[in-house]
Amino acid sequence: MSILVTGGAGFIGSNFVLDWLAQSDEPIVNLDKLTYAGNLENLASLQGDARHLFVRGDIGDSALLDALLAQHRPRAVLNFAAESHVDRSIHGPQDFIQTNVVGTFALLEAVRAHWGGLPEAEKSAFRFLHVSTDEVYGSLGPTDPAFTETHRVEPNSPYSASKAASDHLVRAWHHTYGLPVLTTNCSNNYGPYHFPEKLIPLMIVNALAGLALPVYGDGLQVRDWLYVRDHTSAIRRVLQAGRPGEVYNVGGWNEKPNIEIVHTVCALLDELRPRADGKCYREQISHVRDRPGHDRRYAIDARKIERELGWTPAETFESGIRQTVQWVLDHPDWVAHVQSGAYRQWIHQHYAEAAA
Ligand code: NAD
Ligand code: TYD
């Protein structure tokens, strides 16, 4: 038996692959296009490991999908592949529609054809797990209850709209064709291998480089934060015991305003890698122009996955963020390698506009 994972060279996908193979000998076929966000260095520890087969390719490539499914006959397909950065989706939504909507459609069609041809026992055991985000639910007011699985879908950014569209396709493939799907909608992740264009890793690497820490607007936007390995454990649990057709919200019960996150990162760095001049990293904070259409608050009600599947996060925010800062300090080569020419160009273009 094996599973097929898409997007397994990205932040969450690579953590999932590493965690899976640390706990099981069931092989993984890992299909990833290796966009700017895909990084085989995340999987370097699996070099020579016969349980991990990496295939470079696009989830929109139907012929490749048909061949991989026919050859490996996975018992499950887990879809992590996506364009995932809100700011990039604002600058250029095309890739988001292409991968997140059209790509998911192509993947669903290939999986449906494969699943339809399986013998009955394999067919009923098969699962398609779609990894999605809490951002599909839109933005909450300060006192609104957290998102449940039945909250209205009200995406506000090109990224969240494309993810919501993919969630709808997944749902429809279950209702119309009976494909045994599972969907997870998770809050903001952080942890090892996080690409430094997202808030937490960007703040850590900028602080260490002596650069400005760009906080959008007033910094009082709220996100719920989950350590990435808690997300991967939730996905394993949903794959194992989730009911086909169901949606599971995944969150860390850690609602925090952005500015508090940045202060926490600064305080940890003050302790673990003090500035040479003895000053606090907080002095590097700079408020810049807000993100257009910026969602004010996300909050996840994760009681369903706890009640039905017994999953709860293992890390507190305090333990998870400390490990994350330490991980970046311990992996200067990884950071240096992802900060390629293309990365520098994005940072220059995006933050030059925000400062204007
Ligand atoms: P990421 O951007 O770090 O990684 C995405 C991966 O998908 C990369 O390896 C990339 O090369 C690959 N990819 C992109 N387009 C592809 C295509 N057309 N075909 C094959 N591979 C392709 O993203 P992430 O943060 O690891 O997120 C993974 C999934 O989890 C996404 O679906 C995202 O929407 C969802 N999610 C992310 C978060 C978060 O906080 N990062 C939270 C909830 C849900
Ligand atoms: P991000 O990590 O891009 O995740 P998402 O937009 O998917 O929640 O951003 C998290 C929060 O941090 C979001 O409210 C935007 C804010 N932010 C900043 O204030 N400055 C930054 O440089 C970045 C990248 C994000």
Number of strands: 12
SSE order, one letter for each helix or strand: EHEEHEHHHEHEEHEEHEEHEHHHH
Task: State the helix count.
Answer: 13
- Which residues form runs of ≥5 with pLDDT under 50? none
What does it look like?
With 356 residues, the chain is of the alpha/beta class. The chain has a single domain (3-355), classed as NAD(P)-binding Rossmann-like Domain (Rossmann fold). 45% of the residues lie in helices and 15% in strands. It contains 13 helices and 12 strands. The protein has helices spanning 11-23, 62-72, 86-91, 94-116, 120-125, 158-177, 199-208, 228-241, 258-272, 303-309, 317-330, 332-338, 341-355; strands at 3-6, 28-32, 52-56, 76-79, 127-133, 181-186, 188-190, 213-216, 222-227, 247-250, 255-257, 285-288. The strands form 3 sheets. It has a 7-stranded parallel sheet with strand order 3-2-1-4-5-6-10, sandwiched between helices. A 3-stranded mixed sheet has the order 7-9-11. The chain has a two-stranded parallel ribbon with strand order 8-12. Helix 4 (94-116) packs parallel to helix 6 (158-177) and helix 7 (199-208) packs parallel to helix 9. The radius of gyration is 20 Å and the shape is globular. The structure holds nicotinamide-adenine-dinucleotide (NAD) and thymidine-5'-diphosphate (TYD). Residues 86, 188, 198-199, 202, 214-216, 221, 223, 258, 291 line the site of thymidine-5'-diphosphate.
